[in-house]
Amino acid sequence: SVVEWMRVGRWSKEIDFGEGSAAAPGFPPMPSWFNDNRDFGNIESGLLDVGLNQHEVAGIMGYNWHRFYADNFTPAV
User: Fold this and answer.
1) What is the pTM of this model?
2) Cβ(48)–Cβ(57) under 8 Å?
């Protein structure tokens, strides 16, 4: 399964259960405020609510990755 592949990987032969254990190998439950990708707005709102400014939140929400790719994965001249 995909979960088993993620836990064992390609070279390791030992299962890494992460937050789980052999007795409870499933993923931890999702927090009530984040059920799926439609709830990304809750993260943005929460970061603003705890005092981060708009520029900081934009970076966390994806701008840092966008800038990294734009600056580093361009055609060679």
Assistant:
1) 0.56
2) yes
Distance CA 11, CA 15 (A): 11
**Cα Rg of the chain, angstroms:** 18
State the number of CA atoms in the 13 A half-sphere of 48 facing the CB: 10
Domain span holding position 6: 1-30
Is 38 in the same domain as 15?
no
Q: Is pLDDT at 11 greater than 80 in this prediction?
A: no
pLDDT over threshold 70, residue 12: no
Q: What percent of the chain has pLDDT over 90?
A: 47
Number of domains in the chain: 2
Alpha carbons 15 and 6: distance in angstroms, whole number: 9
pLDDT band at 16 (very low <50, low <70, confident <90, very high): confident
